[in-house]
Design goal:
The complex is a heterodimer of chains A (562) and B (213).
Chain A (H helix, E strand, L loop, with lengths): L7 H5 L6 E4 L6 E4 L1 H13 L7 E9 L7 E9 L4 E9 L5 E3 L8 H12 L2 E3 L52 E6 L11 E7 L2 E8 L7 H6 L6 H6 L6 H16 L5 H29 L3 H22 L8 E2 L2 E2 L7 H23 L3 H7 L7 H6 L4 H5 L7 H4 L20 H25 L18 H6 L1 H12 L7 E9 L2 E9 L7 E5 L2 H6 L1 H4 L5 H11 L3 H5 L1
Parallel strand pairs in A: 2-5, 6-7
Antiparallel strand pairs in A: 1-2, 3-4, 4-5, 8-9, 9-10, 11-12, 13-14, 14-15
Chain B lengths: L24 H4 L4 H16 L25 E3 L14 H5 L5 E7 L7 E9 L8 H5 L5 E3 L14 E2 L1 H5 L16 H4 L12 H10 L5
Antiparallel strand pairs in B: 1-4, 2-3, 3-5
Classes of the chains: A alpha+beta (562), B alpha+beta (213).
Chain lengths: 562, 213
Amino acid sequence: MSAATATQPLLDRFPAGAIVAEEGRDQPTWRVDRAVLADLARALRDDPESRYDTLLDLCGVDYPERDERFEAVYHLYSMPRAARLRLKVSLSEDDPVLPSLIPVWKAADWFEREAYDMFGLRFEGHPNLRRLLTHDGFVGHPLRKDYAPDRRWILTEEKIYLPKLTAPATEESMFERMTINIGPSHPAMHGTFRFVAMLDGERIAASEVEIGYLHRCFEKMSETHTWQQVIPYTDRLNYCSSFINNVAYCRTVEKLLGVEVPPRAVWARTILSEFSRIMDHCVANGSTLVDCGALTNFWYLFQVREEVYGLLESLCGSRLTVSACRIGGLLADLPPDFEARCRRLLEIIPSFVGDVEKLIDKNRIFMDRAVGIGRITGEEAVNWGWTGPCLRASGVGYDVRKAHPYDLYDTVEWEVPVLNGGDVYDRYRLRMLEIRQSMAIIRQLLDRGMPPGPFVVDDPHVALPPKAAVYNQMESMIYHFKLIMDGIRVPLGEQYVPTEGANGELGFYIVSDGSARPYRIKVRPPCFPIFSTFSRLMEGHTVSDVIATLGGLNIIAGELDR
Amino acid sequence: MRREALDLPGVQEHPRTLTPRRMTIAERLYLPLLPGLLVTIRHFLGNLFRTRKAYTIEYPEQRRQYSHRFRGHHILTTRPDGSVRCVACYLCATNCPAECIHIEAAERADVNVEKYPAVYQIDLLRCIFCGYCVDACPEDAIIMSNNYDLAFYSREQSIAGKADLMKPFTFDPGKLGYRPYYPEETGLPGPTDPGSFDLVEAARERATGPSAA
């Protein structure tokens, strides 16, 4: 981190001992007394020297052996300064209460509900502190360490949540009010979300979003599996670009281990991440357009996805849930025709994308549905915790690949496209521009040539030795058995590593207690804060606008509900 | 003004106003729909007269060609004498993230091998086809095939036992999938049939060099 996290004058405003900096962390970390948390948060946001304008993530961690058992961990980010800060608040089991930060960052809304749901932390001042990911028939808080992973709860009909929506009557409201339910199983909801809207005539007067229908306790399950076994679980987060999830998780564990990934694997990871991004953008745009009635584009764009799946399958043998990364590299060496296949893809993608642009870009039928719909300004989007293409369509050019380069992104020339419409049309357009940038990145890397060398790190404590060595050498055989029976030992520590996922900053916050299993894994799913804004985005719009907006936000239920 | 690119890092001011796209007069008159119409007509004629390759596959008459690495139905490989190669070491079951492998070991008459699986079952409805069992196997006893025809009439049928795993093909017999070595790709001599080649012997040969082979 380049800049100091905050200036001394800011800290002097708080009583001594209320804020203690922890040394030797991956990013600046402060342990904060909950009494000063709300004031500190406001000061950190507004102070011109610190300007932490967004709350990226909030999660709980449970340490049953400590006196103050729970820890609430906030990850803040300052876009103007490209600086990160982690705040930790310790809480006892009898009194796990802390102030809600919704007045400072709107993004806190759902994150606080999630922490309440998973750990039982209570946020004073939260307007709607209900369970978010689990259902209302659920008892207990599943991510506490004393909660058995195999507990099951059945949701009975009388416990199903029914939102009670209210909205003040306005002068224009001359119609009868009606509440309608869209989802959770509705073809236009792209996954399983429930959207409840109170209509005033055709306009939405108030609405509420209900999620968690695809919750499968990814984070709890990770704690019961070895580090290597978590990789197939990450495939199922954002299943439209599962390769990027693999990379994001593996990079975090590699940072914890201090392992250097071989250049060949880094090269392949960068190329395949970009292809996955292209694929994800095609899905997002294809489904936006098909929701607006433009089915043809869906076919053209999905053909691109089909071809990229072929490339991934030739490496790892699977199309959707690739599990193609291993901690320290890739699962297998690249196929001999890898470069030829990539070049062929670069040739055909522009023809499909170009056809869609010819059909849509200047098409008034689409513009009437999309321009000015689902608007959000850059300033507001940042406060709601938006990242990725949706934020860049609102005029804020934050991209992890540029702001905090990883892999090979700082060695190639490309730019971050930014548009300033903040609506459905610009989100569509921006994804098309990003597809071009991704292709430029891939082309430069291909021209550079495939680096020679191993595809996975040569460290028998991290990666399985090659099979030929296992069959022939006693030592490799022992390492092979040890690695599978005991798993990788990841040193004690914590890491938050951001990766630019297809729809925003995909962050993995991992705490390791030095054992063979993760102590705590928290995913920061990029679409989670975006979708928490949905009710606010849809105020005053019609139901048809809801459908048009949803595809463009690229909400992936697998990642949202985890 | 519509900006196309922004200097980074350091987003100094977050925009408070939006400038949505404005329609031109031609767009208001729906004129740009005509080039779009040409795109669909081109695709339509191309498909009608088959002047270009169709993107669809007429399954099941026509089947998709997957790579040699496809992660399909598992195969339990055999020794030259036809017995199962697996030595019931439980590494695959330990490494399986889905916990779908069930093994019951038994003693074997041959003292060099000691153990074999009396029961080896994979619950194909639990299996996520990640290939971790193949990675874990120290004997090349489990590999994967190219077979993706996995449909069942009952849950009982979804549990593949030893016999199913040793003869896993319904179509394309002999098409192997995910495994530690790909002789098709490297051009080195090696096993392509799980029944008649000694995979471990072949791997040893490859490791010690082509002269030994």
